Amino acid sequence: MTLRLVRRLYFLGVGVSVLLVLCGGTLDIDWALLLGLLLLAATVALEVKYWRCPYCGEHLDRNLFASYCPRCGEELDYDQDLRGLL
Ligand SMILES: [Zn+2]
Question: SS3 of 29, please?
Answer without folding.
Answer: coil
